[in-house]
Design a protein that fits this description.
Protein name: DUF317 domain-containing protein
Number of helices: 5
Number of strands: 13
Strand content: 25-35%
Shape: globular
Largest sheet: 10 strands, antiparallel
Number of domains: 1
Strand order of the largest sheet: 2-3-4-5-6-11-10-9-8-7
Length: about 270
């Protein structure tokens, strides 16, 4: 794209052709900044090396999110350190996993956990996914049959969440989560996987698949920028609110008592 098309961001700008794609699970990877910019606005540190893969680290340094397109098969890796009750956990998502679905997981990393017990299957059932039990496997399949979510439990005691999407030409992606991945994160992922809303892709970035539906839309660069900025602003506002709540939290330890009329000795 020539620079002159991007200058001004105002009345003289030209609309560009984009496409709404449905189902979102087959929309292709998308722009990784949808994930990284939200994390950055939420206070995460960018540990990426120049010219290397993306690497983001949580403020408390316990979780890392990486995207590496330079190796095969490449894709996303999310790794959480062990804490007292649980061991380390990880999630691996293929490079064609739509960023909107990846963000279901990574956005949830920046937010407080819900007080309610997580239910991975609830978002899928709400969107009429088909569920079935086959031996040690419980599987949910999307209405059009392109995407799935599966919980596997092997006789040796190992277990794993496995999910993905594939069209009839064999194009698609897979992802898996280790058994001790926090369930609220897996639920956040399944909610975006089941989301029926289409996602937007620019011209030239729409997969060639007979199983997707597309609608052509004209979008101005300033509109795209405004939509992206709204997401970043929301992340910054939520981060500010959490930090403010922590700094204004009332003291839980008693102050030293000073008798009336007495003075404290400086040390």
């Amino acid at each position: 794209m020539r620079k002159k098309q991007w200058q001004g961001w105002g009345p003289g700008e030209q609309a560009e052709q984009h496409y709404l794609v449905q189902p979102r699970a087959l929309a292709g990877g998308g722009d990784v900044r949808h994930v990284s910019e939200f994390l950055r606005a939420s206070g995460w540190r960018d540990r990426s090396k120049t010219g290397g893969p993306l690497l983001m680290e949580s403020p408390d340094r316990t979780v890392r999110v990486a995207y590496d397109p330079y190796v095969l098969p490449g894709g996303w890796t999310v790794h959480g350190q062990a804490d007292d009750p649980n061991g380390a956990w990880s999630a691996h998502l293929g490079r064609q996993t739509p960023v909107e679905i990846v963000a279901g997981l990574t956005d949830a990393l920046t937010q407080p956990r819900s007080a309610h017990a997580p239910n991975v299957w609830a978002p899928l059932e709400e969107q009429n996914w088909h569920t079935r039990l086959e031996g040690e496997r419980y599987t949910a399949t999307s209405p059009e049959g392109a995407a799935w979510m599966q919980y596997r439990h092997s006789p040796d005691g190992s277990a794993m969440w496995w999910t993905g999407a594939k069209d009839k030409q064999g194009n698609g992606w897979t992802a898996n989560f280790t058994p001790n991945t926090p369930m609220y994160l897996v639920q956040a992922f399944s909610a975006e996987l089941a989301n029926p809303d289409p996602v937007m892709r620019p011209r030239g970035r729409v997969p060639h698949s007979a199983q997707i539906r597309t609608w052509s839309v004209s979008v101005k660069p300033s509109q795209l920028r405004a939509w992206q900025q709204a997401r970043i602003t929301a992340a910054r506002a939520a981060t500010w609110a959490r930090n403010s709540a922590r700094t204004t939290r009332p003291r839980t330890t008693a102050r030293p008592h000073t008798p009336a009329g007495g003075t404290r000795t400086r040390r």
